[in-house]
Amino acid sequence: HFQVMMLLLMLMLSVVSLAHNFCYDEEHCDPYAWGDNYPSCHPLLESHHSPINLDHQLMKNQSLDSLHLEGFNLTLKGQWWLTNQGHSVVLELGNGMQVSGGGLPGTYRTIQLHFHWGSVSSNGSEHTLDHLRFPMEMHIVNIKSTHPNLTSALEDPTGLAVKSKSFHFLVGQTKSIRPFPLMNLLPQNNLTQYYRYHGSLTTPPCSQVVLWTVYEVPTYISWAQLFVKRIYSTEELADKQVHLQNNYRHIHPTYGRPVYASKDAKMLTNGVSPLAIFYLFNVLLFIGFLNI
Ligand SMILES: *[C@@H]1O[C@H](CO)[C@@H](O)[C@H](O)[C@H]1NC(C)=O
Ligand SMILES: *[C@@H]1O[C@H](CO)[C@@H](O)[C@H](O)[C@H]1NC(C)=O
Ligand SMILES: *[C@@H]1O[C@H](CO)[C@@H](O)[C@H](O)[C@H]1NC(C)=O
Ligand SMILES: *[C@@H]1O[C@H](CO)[C@@H](O)[C@H](O)[C@H]1NC(C)=O
Ligand SMILES: *[C@@H]1O[C@H](CO)[C@@H](O)[C@H](O)[C@H]1NC(C)=O
Ligand SMILES: [Zn+2]
């Protein structure tokens, strides 16, 4: 098991196109080049980029109380779909979960979650806490419930079936997952401790439409080390299979944006000790199993 930074993205628009011509590891299409094809990813043209480093600049905001997480406690009916989209592994969550409260301007429907990670022995979170990267970051994506259409855009109509019994998970492949209470993936005892800021998608088109909620207390989730090792960024017929890893964007300046800490947040960023850092990187050796 290892520690994961937990975040909730609140998308304020439904206009999120699925961009595919970008990458993380080749110079011509890596995160520093995204702005060539996607002007809104250009760091000098837009000032609300994500991810950011979270540090001592946090401002306590007493109106940020607990989020209302509806349905996160339940074992929902039906199936969820886990898909390798090439840039990440995405779990489509179907209907039944929504988020409100905690200073959010409305109710948001929870539609999917996905992950950002490093290479097996390295770090992979997108946001950093006092410049410390965590091994992995999970994004739970929520959209304004008045925009029901991102789900249908993301849904895979064919299911694509599970193509092979091997663990090799190639681009376009999908596996069905039995729903489980999403609460199991969250820092259940510390949900009222979080940070809030206005930022962007961390993948093209980098739309500046995201209200980020970053849980202050990292959590342990189960994740198969084998699974992470065997996710590929290549398609089935490719000559050479390439691992999907290091799918995180670099840190952006806040440019004076307020970053709030919730009423109950403890501003733990002041207290990250070298020992904690050592521990965080060591836990990578003890990765468990994702529920697949
Ligand atoms: C989860 O559900 C239980 C009841 O089944 C409830 O008491 C508890 O408050 C819920 N937890 C959260 C965080 O919603
Ligand atoms: C606290 O957060 C709310 C909701 O995000 C925001 O509207 C308000 O301006 C913030 N308060 C202060 C004092 O910054
Ligand atoms: C994490 O990444 C940073 C650069 O982003 C690097 O300096 C550091 O050595 C990495 N740590 C580990 C344990 O890989
Ligand atoms: C969702 O989008 C599809 C086309 O992409 C459209 O046919 C449908 O009416 C939309 N549904 C809603 C609820 O907006
Ligand atoms: C998490 O919440 C528990 C219960 O409120 C509290 O005792 C603990 O200090 C919190 N953990 C952190 C790291 O803040
Ligand atoms: Zn993400």
What is this entry, summarized?
8% of the residues lie in helices and 26% in strands. With 292 residues, it is mainly beta.
Explained architecture:
With 292 residues, the chain is mostly beta strands. It has one domain (2-286): Alpha carbonic anhydrase (Carbonic Anhydrase II, Roll). 8% of the residues lie in helices and 26% in strands. Strands 1, 3, 4, 5, 6, 7, 8, 11, 12, 13, 14, 15 and 16 form a 13-stranded mixed beta sheet that branches. Strands 2-9-10 form a 3-stranded mixed beta sheet, with no helix packed on it. The longest helix is centred in the last third of the chain and has 9 residues, at 274-282. The two termini are 15 Å apart. One 2-acetamido-2-deoxy-beta-D-glucopyranose is lined by residues 148-149, 152.
Structural topology:
Layout: E1 2-11, H1 34-37, E2 53-54, E3 59-60, E4 67-70, E5 80-84, E6 89-92, E7 98-101, E8 108-117, E9 128-129, E10 132-133, E11 136-144, H2 149-154, E12 174-177, E13 194-199, E14 210-215, E15 219-221, H3 225-229, E16 260-261, H4 274-282
Parallel strand pairs: 1-11, 2-9, 3-16
Antiparallel strand pairs: 1-14, 1-15, 4-7, 5-6, 5-12, 6-8, 7-8, 8-11, 9-10, 13-14, 13-16
The structure holds 2-acetamido-2-deoxy-beta-D-glucopyranose (NAG) (5 copies) and zinc ion.
